[in-house]
Write a structure and sequence with these properties.
Layout: H1 10-38, E1 40-42, E2 46-58, E3 61-70, E4 76-85, E5 88-95, E6 98-103, H2 105-110, E7 116-130, E8 133-148, E9 151-154, E10 158-162
Antiparallel strand pairs: 1-7, 2-5, 2-7, 3-4, 5-6, 6-10, 7-8, 8-9
Length: about 160
């Protein structure tokens, strides 16, 4: 007489655990990103007159180069390494709040050093709760667009902002 065993095999349980781990690996970063965005607030779109302070182009570089590295024994040594640097385009705008450094070939193609433009941006605030009160702290600027001679030049890849 055969007895019927109730339950799951070890393989079935491991498959379920792997599926749960994959779901957590996807869900946790998305959840953390949503929590960070929840604490951010943006102002209305602001405009400001600016001057193109610099137009920068960095050519791509591919090939071999030498540099320092660690050998298989953990000692510091000179070694050949592969260099793969993509080309970059950037425009630096100087305005009342400091400088916007914006990447993108589209802006680089349409603007030259010394051009007078109108910059569109939003102020980005982080909301911090302390003792039951919520404080707004300016953390940066979200570059939206630039207008030259009444025509908009689209670009949204802001890489930084520095106040000077």
């Amino acid at each position: 007489m055969l007895r019927k065993i109730k339950g799951f095999t070890l393989i079935e349980l491991m498959v379920v655990v792997v599926i749960i781990v994959i779901l957590f690996a996807i869900a946790v970063p998305a959840f953390n990103h949503m929590r960070q965005r929840q604490n951010l607030e943006f102002s209305d779109t602001l405009t400001e007159q600016a001057v193109v302070a610099d137009v920068v182009y960095t050519p791509s570089r591919h090939g071999l180069g030498s540099g320092t590295g660690f050998d298989t024994h953990g000692d510091l040594s000179f070694t050949d390494m592969k260099i793969d640097i993509p080309e970059k385009y950037a425009v630096v705008f100087k305005c009342q709040h400091g400088k916007f450094i914006v990447t993108g070939k589209e802006l680089w193609d349409h603007l030259a050093e010394g051009d007078s433009v109108k910059v569109f941006y939003r102020e980005e605030y982080k909301m911090i709760k302390r003792d039951g009160d919520t404080e707004r702290h300016l953390v940066g600027y979200d570059f939206l667009n630039v207008e030259k001679d009444g025509m908009k030049v689209l670009s949204r890849e802001a890489v930084g902002h520095s106040s000077e």
